Amino acid sequence: MPDDRDMLDERSIKVLWAVIHSYINNPDPVGSRYVTRKYAFDFSPATIRNIMADLEDMGFLSQPHTSAGRIPTDKGYRFYVENLMEEMDEKVSSHEELIDSLTRRLEDLREDIYTLLDETTRTLSTHSHYLGIAVSPGPDGSTLRRIELIPYSDDRIAVILFTNEGIIKHKILKNSFAFSRNDLNKIARYLNREFSGYTIKEIRQCLFDEMARDKALCDSLISKALSLCGDVVACYGSNVFISGLSEILELPEFSDVEKVKELSRTIEDKHAVIKLIDSLANEEGVQVIIGAENTIEEMKALSIITSTYKEGDKPAGVVGIIGPTRMDYSSAISLVDVTARFLTKILDEGGRQWRRER
Amino acid sequence: MPDDRDMLDERSIKVLWAVIHSYINNPDPVGSRYVTRKYAFDFSPATIRNIMADLEDMGFLSQPHTSAGRIPTDKGYRFYVENLMEEMDEKVSSHEELIDSLTRRLEDLREDIYTLLDETTRTLSTHSHYLGIAVSPGPDGSTLRRIELIPYSDDRIAVILFTNEGIIKHKILKNSFAFSRNDLNKIARYLNREFSGYTIKEIRQCLFDEMARDKALCDSLISKALSLCGDVVACYGSNVFISGLSEILELPEFSDVEKVKELSRTIEDKHAVIKLIDSLANEEGVQVIIGAENTIEEMKALSIITSTYKEGDKPAGVVGIIGPTRMDYSSAISLVDVTARFLTKILDEGGRQWRRER
DNA sequence: GTTAGCACTCCCCGCCTTAGAGTGCTAATA
DNA sequence: TATTAGCACTCTAAGGCGGGGAGTGCTAAC
Fold this sequence. Notes:
- By secondary structure, chain A is α+β, with helices and mostly antiparallel strands.
- Chain A folds into three domains: about 5-90, Arc Repressor Mutant, subunit A (Orthogonal Bundle); about 95-135 and about 240-355, Beta-Lactamase (2-Layer Sandwich); about 145-235, 2-Layer Sandwich (Enolase-like, domain 1).
- The first copy, chain A, has helices spanning about 5, 10-25, 30-40, 45-55, 75-90, 95-105, 115-130, 180-195, 200-215, 220-235, 245-250, 255-270, 270-280, 330-350, and strands spanning about 60, 70, 130-135, 145-155, 155-165, 170-175, 240-245, 285-290, 300-310, 315-325.
- In chain A, α9 (about 200-215) packs across α10.
- The interface between A and B is medium-sized, with 33 and 33 residues.
C-alpha cells in the first residue's frame, strides 16, 4: 500500500483536517463555503470544492447525497489519527482533572480491582462522554500471589486465590473427602510453594502437564491439591465493565432507536466484547480501531480506543473508550493513555515485592 | 376510600378487563367496536361506549384525545391487578420452562450469590421481555457465617467474610500492627464465636455499643479484633443487578429516544434503585407498584413487580421485573413469584445447618 | 335499557411546495 | 495554468393541505 501521505499536498491535508475537525464537533456534512469561512482559507469555495472532490476520489471523504457537504470516511479518520492529529490539534489539557478524579474515586479501592475497574469506566465515560470500558486481567494477565484453603462446611471448602493484580477469586468446592484443617494447610503450603509467582495460564498448563505425565507418581495429597487448584483456575476468566450508556445516548448519532438497540445488544454480549478486546491485549500503547476496521458486525459504526495497563512489565488488562467513528480521537486517546498509566501505577504500588524472579 | 369493586357492575368489569387485556397485548387505544367484536359481547358498540364513558368518569380509563379509543389508567391497572387478574385470565403455564432454565443456569452457582443473582436477572428478562432486577442481601439480610483473617503482605491483612446467603466479601486492610498468623487465628476465633449467626446489621450495632460502653475495658487484642471487623462490616452494602435493556427496547413505548435516555439514566443510578427496592424488602409476597405510585420521578411511566427471597424465614434480598405500566402483570407476577421461591430454595439447601438458635 | 344513525373530532398519511444549502461545470480572470 | 465567479441543478428538510379512517357523543327510535 502506497503511503497516502505522499498523495496529498499541504493544501489538501489542511482541507481534510478542517472537514474532520468540524465534523467531530458537529455532525453536519461540511460544505466548501463553511470551510473557507471558518478555517480562514485563502481560497474561494470553488477551489475547496475541487480539493474536496479529489479527497473524495481518494476515499478520504464521502457525500451522504449529491448536494450535501462532505463527511469523513473511516479511511479519512485513520489518516487523521495517524498523520494529522498530533501536529495540528492544539494540545489538550494535561488531564489534571481526570487524574484528580481518578485519584479521589479510586483511592480506597486499590486492593479490589473489580470495583476499581468499574469506577474507572465511570470516570472514563463522564470525562469522554462516550462509553468507558475495562477488562480485568485474564488467565495470562494474572499472577498468582497466594492461595488459601478454608473449611466452609462439612463437605465444602472455600478456595481463595489472591493475585498480584489485586484480584481475589473464591470458589466453594464440594469435596467428597473430608480434609482436616491441617491437611488443608499442608495442601495450601504446597500449592503456594509450587505456583505462586506464575500466571494462571502457566499454572493451568503446568497442571495439565502434571496430570498427563503420570498420575500414579503423585502421592494422594498432592494429587488432590492439584485437582482442587485445577477446579479454581479452570473457571478463571476476564470480567468486562462498561458504563456510560446515558452519556453516549446524548449524541445525535443515537437519536435513532435502532442504533440504540444495536448498541445495547452489543454491550450486553460480554463474550464478544472480551474476545474483541483480548485480541488487543498484547499490543503496546494505545490502540485505535476505527469503524469497519472492527471485526464485530454491530460495531462497524463505532470506534474503539484501548490501552493495556500493566502489572510490572507484563500486560494485565485493558481499558478503553467506545464511541462513534465521529469521535474526538485526540482527547479520547490521551484520556485512555493517562488512565492506563494510572492503573499501572496503582498496581505497581501494591504488588512489587511479590514478583517472583525467573 | 370506598371499595371500587362496589362501584362496578359485572358488565363494566368485563369491559374494563377487555380494554386492559387488549391494551396489554397491543398498545393501541381500544375502541368500542373492537371490544364487542373481539370479546364477543352481547351488546352493541353504543352500549359499550356508554360503559366506557362511565369507566372514564370513574378514573379507570382515559382517552389520549377525543375520538380515540380508551387506554387504562394506573388506577385501572391497579383494579385489574387486585380484582380481575386471577379470576379472569386463563392460568399461565406453570413456568416449568423457567424453572428448567433457572435450574440449568444456576446449578453451578449456588455458592456465589452475586453471579447467581446476575444470571437470575438475565433469565427473568429473557422470559418476561422486560428488565430483570435483583438486589443482594444488605446488612440486615445477611447473616455472618464465618470470618477469616489472612496475612496478605507485610503490612496488610485480608479479611474474608462468609455469609449464610453465599456472599463472600473480602477487604484488604492496611494495618499498622504486625499481627502474627497466630494472633490472627486467635482474633478470628474470637470474632467467630462472638458474631457468627448474627446479621451484619446486628454486628454493626453491637460493635457500636461495645465501643461506646468502655474502650478501656477491652484488652488490646479484642479491641483490635473489633476494629478489624468494624472496617469490613462498615462497607457492607447491597448490590443491584439489572439486565435486559435490549429486551425492553423492543417495546413500542421505547421507540422514543427520550424515553430510552430516561430509562438508562434511571437504571445507571444504582443508589436510587436500591433505595426504592429496599423499601419493599420487608413486605411479604409479591409487590406490585404501578406507574405513578412509584416515588422515583423517572419511573412514573414504569411498573415494578418484586418479591423477596429468603434465607430461612428471614427476608434476604429482592428480585423483580421492571416494565412499562402496560405490562403483562399476570405472567410477570408469577414469574417473579416463582423466581423468588426458587432462590429461597437454593439458599435453604446451602445454609440450613449453620443457623444459630436464638 | 338498548341500539341505530349521524354529525363531529381528531389523527395519520401521502402529496405538494418552498426554501436553503451545496454541488459540479463552464467560462472568465489573473 | 491555477483560481474564481456565476449558474443551473440536485437533494433534503420543513411546512401546509386534504382526504380517509377510526372512534366518539348525542339523539331519537325501539
